[in-house]
Design goal:
The protein is mainly α. It is built from four helices and no strands. It is elongated and about 55 Å long.
Length: 111
Amino acid sequence: MKTALLRYRTMANIVGVLLIVLILVGVPLKYLASDGSGLQDAGEWITTYLGIAHGWLYMIFLVMAALLARKARWTIPFTITTLLAGTIPVVSFWAEHRATKAVRAAHPETA
């Protein structure tokens, strides 16, 4: 259980940080900066390359979350909420905290 929780938490934090950079930095730079400026180019790079990385890493996050959900015997609504929260910037950190708290409460040996 401890290893499954660690894998989930690691992926949740990586995906959460990438999503924040992608949505709160990359997208505004890409669409709000002056055409042809260095800032727009940076936004283009962030949305292209970090977007791809986030997509692949999000799939790994989903697998890690599903494995933890199965092992921790989460309910379907709890599992779905945790998985979907990973798509909303900043809310993903709340979901990770909530899931970690639930696992540690149900399985004290993981603390």
